[in-house]
Amino acid sequence: MAMTMKSVLVMMLGLAMAVTSSAAVYKVGDTSGWTILGNVNYTDWAVKKTFRIGDTIEFKYPQGIHNVLEVKKADYDSCTNSSPIATHTSGDDKITIKSAGHRFFICGIPGHCAAGQKVNIRVLKQRSSSSSDAPSTAPAASPPSSAAAAPSPGDSEPASTPSSSAGSTDSSSSAATTAPAPNANGAAAGVHAGFPAVAAAVALALVATMEMLQ
């Protein structure tokens, strides 16, 4: 029985770890890889992807035939290879994204960047765990209208006073029911952002349970 429970806990631990790991690996150019053959449109390839912090960009190419230079935007636009930020030459370069924004890559072999071997990777910002879509406060009750004011000494119809009081009651009741409902999107964002933390806590609890069964 203990062994069966251990097996179940191990499986649940593996599932929890899989949930917390959501990073993706993108092979630049897909099946074509990093090349000047086949007229691969790397701009079109990049705009169809959604890159996030933690993802990996993989450049696959014959070693010695191409390379990968990370450059500044100006050097990317002009295909200048003289001052790269980083140089990769392994033939299977895996670059992990650690910050949001644009990252620019070219092939430094003369003529290759001009032939289209360049790619602009746009990395999205991570959603903050604190939601800014908090429910708004209810608006203050509107002041009594002039129609509900007390009658002047010259008024000859005292029966109008109860009517004004009823109008004032209706106004307060309307103001009390105009509070906007909480924003459902804000609540959903908070749950989504906190999900990896919950999965990690489940994983830790499973490890502690396994230690107790030993």
TrEMBL record:
<keyword id="KW-0732">Signal</keyword>
<dbReference type="InterPro" id="IPR008972">
    <property type="entry name" value="Cupredoxin"/>
</dbReference>
<feature type="compositionally biased region" description="Low complexity">
    <location>
        <begin position="128"/>
        <end position="185"/>
    </location>
</feature>
<feature type="signal peptide">
    <location>
        <begin position="1"/>
        <end position="18"/>
    </location>
</feature>
<dbReference type="GO" id="GO:0009055">
    <property type="term" value="F:electron transfer activity"/>
</dbReference>
<feature type="region of interest" description="Disordered">
    <location>
        <begin position="125"/>
        <end position="185"/>
    </location>
</feature>
<dbReference type="GO" id="GO:0005886">
    <property type="term" value="C:plasma membrane"/>
</dbReference>
<dbReference type="InterPro" id="IPR003245">
    <property type="entry name" value="Phytocyanin_dom"/>
</dbReference>
<dbReference type="Pfam" id="PF02298">
    <property type="entry name" value="Cu_bind_like"/>
</dbReference>
<dbReference type="InterPro" id="IPR039391">
    <property type="entry name" value="Phytocyanin-like"/>
</dbReference>
<feature type="domain" description="Phytocyanin">
    <location>
        <begin position="24"/>
        <end position="125"/>
    </location>
</feature>
<protein>
    <recommendedName>
        <fullName>Phytocyanin domain-containing protein</fullName>
    </recommendedName>
</protein>
